[in-house]
Every structure is written in structure tokens, then in C-alpha cells.
Design goal:
Elements (H helix, E strand, L loop, with lengths): L1 H8 L7 H10 E6 L4 E3 L7 E7 L2 E6 L5 E7 L7 E2 L2 H5 L7 E4 L3 E7 H10 L4 H23 L3 H11 L3 H4 L2 H8 L3 H10 L1
Antiparallel strand pairs: 1-8, 2-7, 3-6, 3-8, 4-5, 4-7
Helix pairs in contact: 5-6, 8-9
Length: 192
């Protein structure tokens, strides 16, 4: 069962049978269709998703009306956690949208349900730390990419950190994520 895959991911925190029963109550399976949204810009981030199958990306619209890619999600840790922690922690609406690039399967939990789980089992708070961890890793990676000067350097960093992205998403999306024009990206890729 898909929910069991998510629970196994966190088994190292030694979940008891009672905790497991309560955790199953707040987890549910959802299916996202291509081009539909997990989270729209302007919405409050009130749920966490664990991507089982499919692809998503986070984006905003730039001043030219084009999508500016902020993040990619695919079924591989740490890229499988769908959560806008920045919007959640600041209790504000999301500045980016999370859009399904392919039909996808996710296991979802509402943050309100997670807080109830904390009340009953306080040690589940460590689960939130595990959910946050990929968000911090992603921020660190993006910081490295921003500091990189040339297109070749940015592409090389991304290839080291997340080589799967180059197989899963179109080059125009990757160029947008790196802040590189598509033509510059393509020329740099030919040099690698």
C-alpha cells in the first residue's frame, strides 16, 4: 500500500502500533492530473505531500508573463516532499504555484492533522523536522546556484546535485530554474 511506503520512510523513529494507527488516520492518497495544481499561488500552505509517482514543479510568473521555475519534484528523496515551508512558517500565502507536470500519485497529510498527532504523540514533532530537512537542503542548493557565475558552472552544480532533473524535465524548464536563457543553456550543454 502506498501509505505504508511513506510510513516506512520514517520507521527509523521507531513508531509504535498506536502511533502507526493514528498516523494512518491522517494520511490519504490523492491523484493529480497533468497541469492541475497541488498548491496555487496565493493559497495558504496547509498540507504536505509525498510524491509516489509522477512529476511536479514550483513556479511563479515573471514580468513577461512566463513561468519562472523555482523547484522540481520527483519520487526520490529529498525531491519527493511537496511542502511550501516558507509560506507555512511565515503564515502567509504561497508566492509560488505547485503544478503537476505529469499525472501523479501523492500521499497527503494536512498540517492540522499533524498538529493533532503532535498533541497525542509529542515525539512525532521529529516528523516535521524530517519534512523540513529537504526544504533547507533545497535552499542551500539554490544558494550555490545563485552564487555560480557562468552557465557552465550552474549546470555542472545542478548535474552533481540532481542529475535526474536532466532526464525528467525539458531543457527550457531547467534553464528557467538556473536563471539562464534557453539558447545559452543549450550552447553550454553542448560544451559539457
Amino acid at each position: 500500500m502506498l501509505i505504508d511506503r511513506i510510513i516506512k520512510k520514517f520507521m527509523h523513529i521507531d513508531i509504535t502500533e498506536d502511533e502507526l494507527l493514528e498516523a494512518r488516520k491522517i494520511l490519504r492518497i490523492e491523484y493529480g492530473k497533468r497541469n492541475s495544481f497541488f498548491l496555487r499561488k496565493g493559497e495558504h500552505s496547509s498540507r504536505v505531500g509525498f510524491l509516489i509517482e509522477g512529476l511536479l514543479y514550483a513556479y511563479s510568473i515573471d514580468s513577461n508573463g512566463e513561468e519562472q521555475i523555482h523547484n522540481f519534484f520527483y519520487p526520490s528523496f529529498p525531491h519527493d516532499v511537496l511542502f511550501n515551508y516558507e509560506a507555512h512558517i511565515q503564515v502567509q500565502s504561497s508566492q509560488v504555484a505547485y503544478k503537476f507536470y505529469q499525472d501523479s500519485t501523492i500521499v497527503v497529510l494536512d498540517t492540522a492533522g499533524l498538529k493533532k498527532l503532535y498533541e497525542k504523540f509529542p515525539r512525532f514533532y521529529s516528523l516535521e523536522m524530517l519534512i523540513m530537512q529537504p526544504q533547507f537542503l533545497q535552499a542551500t542548493y539554490q544558494n550555490k546556484l545563485l552564487r555560480a557565475g557562468k552557465a557552465l558552472e550552474k549546470i555542472a552544480i545542478l548535474k552533481r546535485q540532481s542529475p535526474e532533473i536532466f532526464k525528467l524535465f525539458p531543457s527550457a524548464y531547467i534553464a528557467s530554474y538556473l536563471g539562464i536563457h534557453r539558447n545559452t543553456f543549450n550552447r553550454a550543454m553542448h560544451k559539457l
